[in-house]
Amino acid sequence: MIANTYMVSASSIHEIIGTAKVGSVTVKQVETIADYESRESLTSTQQAELNRLVAKCDADPELPVGAKTHCKKWFKTQIYDRRKSFKSIQTDKGNIVEDEAIDLIGEYINDPFLTKEDEAPANDGFIKTRGCDCLQWDAVGDNKSSWDFDTFPLFDPKPEKKYVYQVNGYLSIYDRPNGWIAYTLMDAPDSIVHKLTEWECRDLGIPYDLDVFDRIKAHYTYSDYPIELRVKLYRFERDDEMIKAIHDLVKLCRVYIAELEKQLIADGKLPAEETTNQPQ
């Protein structure tokens, strides 16, 4: 069955995890259980909460609504043998500056050998990836190039949770103990500045103007700032409880996709012996 080939992309884990439930406890509650069980003593209130959460673990597992939407989208890519593409000027900038951003991170963490991992498909049987940004002997790192100063998380104490899920997926795939996420503030390439200039001049109803180009280029240039204002690094340890929760959700997704597949076969929309596709 097509359903048996399903694996979640590391970059899409947040789409299935949401308010995901393992048994009938949320991922956050799983973290609470682990925290409370690691303590030498608990208050009566904490002990009661621990007892309640442990009891809930015996309930039947439940797939979040968002995960079901993700499964339907994935299943359609298999049926129609198509991948939905996404393109934006923000992603264009990130792709163009990626190598320079990794060099900047290497300078920041004093690792002169930091390079982008070759994009070779890999998986752990549940989570898959086409590659990762940085693979070190004891860690996997991921670069996020901010669009401009306004989106750079200078004061944020934690990275976005979806990226923590993503890197933990990498940690499972590549079997590393530590992860990091680095946000970088890079200069916009001239090709991006050129597009922005074209759009602004069009909106102003004027011919292409080099003064507009220079003004936009100045706004998106940050290389004259110290490295401490251009790299925001978050380090964390591999979270095996999170990884287990992701694996459990993938199993639930396979069950749900199998139900969708069986319904299409019953409706005569898919042949009973559908050729098994490789995960995309």
| Global geometry | globular
| DSSP helical segment count | 9
Give the C-alpha Rg. Answer: 23 Å
Show unreliable segments.
none
Helix content: 40-55%
Q: What is the N-to-C succession of helices and strands?
A: EHEEHHHHEEEEHEHHEH
- Tally the beta strands: 9
Largest sheet entry: 4 strands, mixed
Task: Describe the strand arrangement of the main beta sheet, using strand numbers.
Answer: 6-7-8-9
Kindly, what is the distance between the CA atoms of the first and last residues, rounded to a whole number of angstroms?
Answer: 15 Å
Q: Average pLDDT, to the nearest integer?
A: 91
Task: Name the beta content range.
Answer: 5-15%
Structural class computed from helices and strand pairing? alpha/beta
SSE blueprint:
Layout: E1 8-9, H1 13-17, E2 21-22, E3 25-26, H2 27-38, H3 44-56, H4 65-80, H5 89-108, E4 122-123, E5 127-129, E6 134-135, E7 139-145, H6 161-174, E8 178-184, H7 190-204, H8 210-219, E9 231-237, H9 240-266
Parallel strand pairs: 1-5, 7-8
Antiparallel strand pairs: 2-3, 4-5, 6-7, 8-9
Helix pairs in contact: 2-3, 4-9, 6-9, 7-8
